Amino acid sequence: MSETRSEISQLGEFGLIDRIQEKFALVNPTSLQGIGDDAAVIDAGDDCVLISTDMLVEGIHFDLAYVPIQHLGYKAVAVNVSDIAAMNGIAEQITVSIAISNRFSIEAIDALYAGIKAACENYKVDLVGGDTTSSAGGLIISIAVIGRANKDQIAYRSGAQVNDIICATGDLGAAFLGLQVLAREKEVYLTNPDMQPSIEKYEYLVGRQLKPEARTDIIFDLREAGIKPSSMIDISDGLASELFHIAKNSGVGVRIYDDKIPIDHIAYETAIEFKLDPITCALNGGEDYELLFTIAQADQEKIKNHPDIHFIGYVHDNKSQNVLITKEGNVVPLKAQGWDHFKS
Amino acid sequence: MSETRSEISQLGEFGLIDRIQEKFALVNPTSLQGIGDDAAVIDAGDDCVLISTDMLVEGIHFDLAYVPIQHLGYKAVAVNVSDIAAMNGIAEQITVSIAISNRFSIEAIDALYAGIKAACENYKVDLVGGDTTSSAGGLIISIAVIGRANKDQIAYRSGAQVNDIICATGDLGAAFLGLQVLAREKEVYLTNPDMQPSIEKYEYLVGRQLKPEARTDIIFDLREAGIKPSSMIDISDGLASELFHIAKNSGVGVRIYDDKIPIDHIAYETAIEFKLDPITCALNGGEDYELLFTIAQADQEKIKNHPDIHFIGYVHDNKSQNVLITKEGNVVPLKAQGWDHFKS
């Protein structure tokens, strides 16, 4: 071991990924895309195989004090399927590896896999493998998802063109606010265990946090409309962070409008209640698992009436300018805060 | 959560896997093989894509007190590549997910990835993705490997035919004995930190434990000889356990000869030194990552001079008889002890 000791927190998660990526070059001709997009792309004739993986660690990504274990199983699959959707592909298989301590009973594991199964059925994905092992500490779930797309259909982060329209699906910030509600209820419960949690009003937000859905429906809608997005990513770390990924990888700049960012009215009201800015929640909240993508202007007409696709801005050629335009016309530089598990 | 609480240790690892498997059916036509072999098989035209995954947990699978972290990285890749070899396929890509606590420095992570890179270069495998996250506890490494094989080349556990010859590569039991040596040295060190470890004599055994190799060379040798094994598995849990998998999945019985089991002379001597039976070490030791396979009798001639392929027995039709024949001619029922991380 070296004498020098440098802390991982100095690098952060993206810094660590960059550090790993730069040491590894691709040598196999079948490796079409490696690290740096929502999924890797592997040549398989006319089709490509897409692969992505996510690891969920108890105490870091979830707290079983307020996450029902069945929902956790569902979410673990959904977020992986979302990564395949973000390549404009269809997920077909998953592998699930778990490490569990003897704190967990067979009934708890059954509930976890019931959630996994519900997601598999909903997204038409087969569980084809995995690993089960014990853990000295908490629960760890590592899922790999395999998807498929025609070579010409794949949407990379790097394809955004100047003048393309930036689209976001669904609504943003609700999952983050759901987490705030759950954390507050946990505090209340710890202070006074006789208090009943009052989350009815926040049901939508809590549902967005506990049981997000991958937007595979949007992939089918876009295909039906004859649209191939020029670039795409899923919104896991917050809208701002994902916009930066697309801008950087495509060598362009992005301009979005705050009054176009889709925010549900309950999310809006709850942000105010928590003394948070609703726009900031949407920009940096994370875990929405909506899709962010760009389309050619000529394609806008084809989906202008889609109830769940919102045109939030456009791509321009100044790559040093990623900005938010406020209702008042102010131009505010975007900041990609996102989540970083190595910083707190 | 249910009122009943049943302990996972009642099921064991294989019981848990069976319990999971029976709840999941395959629905996608591209899912050719799910849980139950060394890798899942996914249709990709003439070729198939193979996928397998392994999770290594600190304190369960490795002890950084005596495993250099660089070797750990190498081994984590090698054992996954071995799973693809066990399907008679060639590994081409991996994803690596890690969870790390702030106990680990950047230098430690660099060493881990240096080992991963050395294995990638040795096996000509591309690192195409993964996940990095923090962990409250120790180090967790989850690797998924993607391989390829022609549909007609894939060797399943279920293909062994009556009268086939059973083959094992390399030598067995050495990795287990290497672990015993390391554990003893750790005890000595804890008792007296000034003592220098004396592992020179055991270098081969310790190397087999710390830095096993996947037998991809055998796959190429078999192809060159024009042999497709009728069944194949890698020896990760011990020869006996793997023989049971092949016998059960193929609906046959196996008969092996104790004097045909390949054991290195240092492994033999060290077993005696530790008051262990060398044959038992080979049968139940595990972590050898050699290949166990069956071939048609007509193929035996083609590899009879291969220095690293040993004919250890044959397949017969009585599926209730999996036996070891001793030098003295005694017939001893095989016991599949293997490793079970949920029992101790």
Please, could you describe this protein's structure?
- The structure is a homodimer of 344-residue chains.
- Chain A is α+β, with helices and mostly antiparallel strands and 344 residues long.
- The first copy, chain A, has two domains: 8-150, 2-Layer Sandwich (60s Ribosomal Protein L30, Chain: A), CATH 3.30.1330.10; 157-333, PurM-like C-terminal domain (Phosphoribosyl-aminoimidazole Synthetase, Chain A, domain 2).
- Chain A is built from ten helices and 13 strands.
- Chain A has helices at residues 12-21, 69-85, 106-123, 174-191, 203-210, 216-224, 239-250, 265-273, 278-284, 297-300, and strands spanning 31-33, 40-44, 47-57, 90-100, 126-134, 140-150, 165-169, 231-235, 253-257, 290-295, 309-316, 323-325, 331-333.
- In chain A, the strands form two sheets. Chain A has a seven-stranded mixed β-sheet with strand order 8-10-7-11-9-12-13, with helices on both faces. In chain A, strands 1-2-3-6-4-5 form a six-stranded mixed β-sheet, covered by helices on one side.
- In chain A, helix 4 packs across helix 5.
- The two termini of chain A are 27 Å apart.
- The model of chain A has no long low-confidence stretch (mean pLDDT 92).
- Chains A and B meet through helix 1, strand 2, strand 3, strand 4 and helix 3 of A and helix 1, strand 2, strand 3, strand 4 and helix 3 of B.
